[in-house]
Amino acid sequence: ERFPYLAQELKRTGVNRLLLWEEYRKACSNGYSYSQFCYHLQVWLNAADVTMHLNHKAGDKAFVDFAGKKLSLVDLKTGEVRPVETFVAILGASQLTYVEAVESQKKKDWIKANENALWYFGGVPAALVPDCLKSGVTKGDKYEPDINPEYGAFAQHYHTVILPARPHSAKDKALVENAVNLVYIRIYAPLRDRIFYCLEDLNQAIGELLERHNQMNFQRLEKSRRQLFEEIEKPALKPLPLERYELRTFLNLKVQFNYHI
């Protein structure tokens, strides 16, 4: 009798078998073990799972991107639901992850989220690897991409460089895309029935689930992202500057014949 409900829930963003089993056991403490639950559910669904893992050098790169699927806020006065963007950053070696909901993909939100990620990590990697979105890269190219001037100034302030993911290169995007999928499972899914009215409350809830995610052990390694970060990645990061970056405005203006703008 539960299978139609479970099948429907599995179609929702981030919901997986483990989450459904945990909810099932709360309602039925003497029910199936996790393996039995998965077996019977898989027979009914005839489904399968896929996993992935990659290795990177400590302190080398942080991969940054926006999640494709959005969270939402509700206007307290009108009840209107509006989507918000989810920024995701992940360090290559430890896979320590940072997640933040922001208003838009505009440059100011993009740069601020990048900066917040660096302060969350407590240090700066040698390079930031964004996808080719306009807030970070004005022109994508395999060999000589054009970096958005303000994003470049931000990187200079933090003594790092921007290495955009190569267009049509799945390898360059694999780690952050896998991180986004885990964000769907470990953050989106637990929040799916909660209502938020402001970014501050949403980000507080995200932060609590994010820390839980970073403290969870890898399936094939008896250590968590947080432990790996403290052991191998944190010592390899460059120090943060004394002050945060101050957003600027870059304009292309034409100089007149009298040298006035």
Describe the structure.
InterPro entries: Integrase_cat-core. This protein has 261 residues and is an alpha/beta fold. The protein has helices spanning 3-10, 17-27, 34-45, 107-121, 149-157, 170-188, 199-215, 225-233; strands at residues 61-66, 71-74, 81-91, 97-102, 127-130, 137-139, 146-147, 161-162. It has 2 domains: 3-45, no CATH class; 61-236, Nucleotidyltransferase, domain 5 (2-Layer Sandwich). It is built from 8 helices and 8 strands. Strands 1, 2, 3, 4, 5 and 8 form a 6-stranded mixed β-sheet that branches. A two-stranded antiparallel ribbon has the order 6-7. The chain starts with a helix and ends in a 28-residue tail after the last helix. The model is unreliable at 47-54 (pLDDT under 50).
Indicate the radius of gyration in whole angstroms: 21 Å
Class of the largest domain, according to the CATH hierarchy?
Alpha Beta
Helix content: 25-40%
Low-confidence segments, given as residue ranges, are 47-54
N- and C-termini, Cα separation: 73 Å
Which sequence of SSEs, written as H and E, runs from N to C? HHHEEEEHEEEHEHHH
- Biggest beta sheet attributes: 6 strands, mixed
Structural class: alpha/beta
Percent of residues in beta strands: 5-15%
**Shape descriptor:** globular
Average pLDDT score: 85
Q: Would you count the extended β strands for me? A: 8
- Structurally, how many domains make up the residues? 2
In DSSP terms, counting alpha (H) and pi (I) runs of 4 or more, how many helices?
8
What is the fourth-level CATH superfamily of the largest domain?
Ribonuclease H-like superfamily/Ribonuclease H
From the 3D structure, determine the CATH topology of the largest domain: Nucleotidyltransferase, domain 5
- Please give the CATH architecture of the largest domain: 2-Layer Sandwich
